[in-house]
Amino acid sequence: VLQGTYFLGRKMRVSIEKGNNPDYHNKLVSIHVSFLTTITSFMINEIYMAQMFAPFGKLVDCVVKQHALTIDPPKQCGYGFLYFSDMESAHNVMQALAADPTLNGVKYDCKLSNAPPVDSSRKEHHI
Description:
This protein is of the alpha+beta class. Strand 6 and strand 7 form a beta hairpin. The longest helix has 13 residues.
């Protein structure tokens, strides 16, 4: 219910925290995701990407870092990161998108990444 709502001018992101255990964060597998589509009837955000990629495995978190929307010509593009709890889930994504990089009309380009998980102590909208 709170996911994606605005509080004090900032979009909230709700996720499950695993405490201050650094070993947990070191085990997460991150994927850099670029996206491009001509669909402008909905916004590609964390909720949408989580819905698209959760079926591939144990998705822990999803962050859209940059998003652009143009009207003429209509398109959306941007990038973000997916965080999975295991390498098998990340490989499921990579294999599926290698065969067909389009999910629900959105073209994705995914690569394994070394991006650290989002630090909730530095992000005010992360609760």
